Amino acid sequence: MQWLLTMPGVGVILAATIALEIGGSAAISERMHLASYAGTTPRVHASGGKVRYGALRADVNRYLKWAFAEAANSVAVNHTRCPDRHVSRLYRRLRQRKGHPKAIGAVARHLAEATFHVLRQKQMYQDPSSWSRSDQPGVSAKLS
Asked: Which phi and psi (to 5°) does residue 51 adopt?
């Protein structure tokens, strides 16, 4: 739970909620699975080569969805205090183009995916902008 406290927008209550809802679930093997389980991914409607993204999924773990949405709202409220954070820049960029609700959904998804990495690697949260090429998820050290 200590690693979750290093994430932006996550305090003691949200960290406890996230840790208890995820538990020691070995079934979540990828970051996309955690984001989907938490309900931070949109529905996808595809037909005839056209893809349309709908609202966030409703058939999910409601407590995780709430926790990540609350953390994203905390980021939104405090984005002027920490303007150099990756999540603050993500929120500002998307709020300008798509509006507040979609920006909150995108930040919540980022936090859900970051939670997977924080818990899997057992290390503190780091902004993606501070990663070196070999630290990025899915990039092996051989490529550097």
From this structure: -120, 130
How far, in Å, are 23, 37, 97 from residue 27 at the CA level? 10, 11, 36
Of 27, 16, 42, 41, give the one whose Cα is nearest residue 111.
41
- CA dist list (Å): 136 to 44, 61, 88: 27, 28, 20
pLDDT of 25:
58
Q: Which residues of the chain have pLDDT under 70?
A: 24-28, 30-31, 129-144
pLDDT in tens, 46-72: 888 888 777 777 778 889 989 999 999
Strands (DSSP E) contained in the chain are 42-47, 50-56
Between CA 133 and CA 21 the distance in angstroms is: 32
Specify whether the CB–CB gap between 125 and 97 falls below 8 A.
no
d(CA 66, CA 50): 31
pLDDT, residue 43, reads: 78
